[in-house]
Fold this sequence. Notes:
The chain has helices at residues 15-34, 48-55, 60-64, 84-93, 137-153, 170-185, 193-201, 212-219, 230-246, 290-293, 308-314, 332-347, 360-369, 380-385, 406-413; strands at residues 38-39, 45-47, 67-70, 76-79, 102-111, 123-132, 160-166, 251-252, 264-272, 280-286, 301-307, 325-329, 352-354, 374-378, 387-392, 398-402. Strand 12 (325-329), helix 12 (332-347) and strand 13 (352-354) form a beta-alpha-beta unit. The protein starts with 14 loop residues before the first helix and ends with a helix. It has 15 helices and 16 strands. The radius of gyration is 28 Å and the shape is elongated. The chain has 2 domains: 15-169 and 229-314, BirA Bifunctional Protein, domain 2 (2-Layer Sandwich), CATH 3.30.930.10; 325-413, Anticodon-binding domain (Rossmann fold). By secondary structure, it is an alpha+beta fold. It is 39% helix and 21% strand. It binds one RNA strand through helix 3, strand 6, strand 10, strand 11 and helix 11.
Amino acid sequence: MPAFQPVRGTHDLLPDEQRKHLHVIDTARQVARGYGYAEMSTPIFEFTEVFARSMGETSDVVSKEMYSFVDKGGENLTLRPEYTAGICRAFISNGLAQQAPFKVFAHGPMFRFERPQKGRQRQFHQIDVEVIGAPEPEADIEVVTLAADILERLGLLDKCVLEINSLGDLDSRLAYRRALVEYLEGHRAHLSEDSLKRLERNPLRILDSKDAGDREVIAGAPPMEAFYTAAARDFFAAVRAGLDASGVAYQLSPRLVRGLDYYTHTAFEFVTTHLGAQGTLIGGGRYDGLIEMLGGQPTAGIGWAGGIERLAMLAANLPPPVRPVALIPIGPAAEARALDLARALRREGLVIELGFRGNVGRRMKRANRLNAIAAVILGDDELAKGVVALRELDSGSQSELPIERLAEKLRTLA
RNA sequence: GCGGGCGUAGCUCAGUUGGUUAGAGCGCCAGAUUGUGAUUCUGGAUGUCGCCGGUUCAAAUCCGGUCGCUCGCCCCA
């Protein structure tokens, strides 16, 4: 029988990899807490409509990348491809409008049926931050600053660039879209095949194209900012002023657009050149129309998501794994005593590893492999004297000490 | 969905114009050391050469298909 492999685009998070993920999550959680964001989770699947309505039926994610299925009750469900829609759904279903501005941090697995690539898997993981019920530019500033602080703590801020843009409010956006389509229609002959398709579904994305021919056409396109309403222009100016005041460096990217339909006003990405083609570490923006699209009262919102795999690949400052203390009993009497001793030491907060089998040599070898800081050897001789032999594995020095002083001594080593 | 590269031991990889029993390093196991790791020395085990088919006297090697990985397009975190 052939051995099973993990499903394409999925990966096991073995302890080493899991440790990196936890480092990213813990760092983000701590920084978010400092900003007053509480942690929450939503279910991994939702009614398909939650995503279809919010992200837009024509977006690539909804139209061809969702893991959708009909459950045994006949419900149309989808494994979440992103976090924002689910959190907004939760905001509505739990009647959280009273708590606005509702500020949360979340993390978890996401699912998209895409061709796997470096930094792109079918099951991947995100950290996520949302602020719902805050129409003020201060929310944009806070959310972006929070992202920058997380990146800094991970040692990544100097490896990426913050690009920001404003898509304007709904009126600005519709007016600009009309003007852009009109301009692009006049240059059809010079557009790439991909962009011709985008012209129908999501013309703004053409601004983002990497194709050389497209870029020439785009260079002559009307600028988005010319279509901002006065309110949209003021809003964006306030956001930029706030980032300046916070000392967060950014680059204006007039052609930055995002792939999901719900974005308005501020759009931003922290982009790195260290990861190949999938260079967005954190991306997000404002989604003032989204809650309403999902059936709630008109409510402003802004947030972002960061790819944990991508962040983990680059993150520095990874704390080293905890070094255990190996407890090595010799003989039946000592083994019985060791069970009790191990529990007592763990209650003291120490990390105790009991090898389950083998002679002293084998257990010492295992202790070494686990990078144990010390081995505590407990045999009949020691038992009779009420002591243990303590061997510090880095130096190799060994000494005897009374068993009741062991916890205290081990704490000084760790 | 489209294009390029790659699949040999647990890991990283070598393997000549197709030619006998497929190799190295690391790791693993055992012994030197039956109450002491790491270091040193000695010995040992481990392969459906991704899979299926074809060419050939002969295939890890050439050809086709397939699955997987990987890089890019696309998309996005």
